[in-house]
Amino acid sequence: MNGSSANEMKDPEEQLEIVNQKGEVIGLAPRTEAHSNPSLMHRVVHVLVFDPGGRLLLQKRSLSKDVAPGMWDTSVGGHVGIGEELPLAAVREMQEELGIPDCDMEYLYTYIHRGRHETELVSTYRCIYNGDISFNRNEIDEVRFWSIEEIRSAAGKGILSMHFEDELRSYLAYTPRTSGP
After folding, report:
1. What pTM was computed for the model?
2. Which of 17, 56, 113, 172 is spaced 20 to 30 A from 160 at the CA atom?
């Protein structure tokens, strides 16, 4: 999630596209370098998965993850592959992380997440899902749906990843637009 994909566990030297603030590719860098140099912004997709009752699915990151181990995080998130279109990356990550083969996704917004070690250009999608979830146990320890009030209550208490707290601020400030990437 959040700057990671299934490849994170298999290939620490995965190559990432380095982009400018407009999302234009300006180079490539190994994942380990992009995750240790905040000047190397790379593209990430997030999908916020809601149930029909409006609760948001969060995943508890595996303790083996190098970014935010053991923290509750965005429903789905991962790197965009070289030359990969954003919606296709979102669909791929949904399948890899949660085993969700199909969900009608809607683009919401793009924002820049700046952390101590990395900078990500995050494109966020949303979907409503009411089916089976078969999460990737190599990356995720647990998943559960949370009400927005439960999430707000957990914010700032060291339960949620910094990445997700940034996402939460973006989502709560979100104003629907008519177009996306």
Report:
1. 0.88
2. 17
Q: Is residue 55 part of a domain?
A: no
Provide the residue type at 156 as one letter.
G
- In 3D space, the residue among 39, 37, 30 whose CA is nearest the CA of residue 7 turns out to be 30
Query: Of 134, 140, 13, 117, which Cα lies nearest the Cα of 64?
Result: 140
Rounded to whole angstroms, the Cα distance separating 3 from 31 reads 9
Domain coverage including residue 45: 6-50+76-134+162-173
Per-residue pLDDT tens listing for the chain (181 residues): 444 444 444 455 899 999 999 999 999 999 999 999 999 999 999 999 999 999 999 999 999 987 889 999 999 999 999 999 999 999 999 999 999 988 999 999 999 999 889 999 999 999 999 999 999 999 999 999 999 999 999 999 999 999 999 999 999 998 775 444 4
Kindly state whether residue 38 falls inside one of the protein's structural domains.
Answer: yes
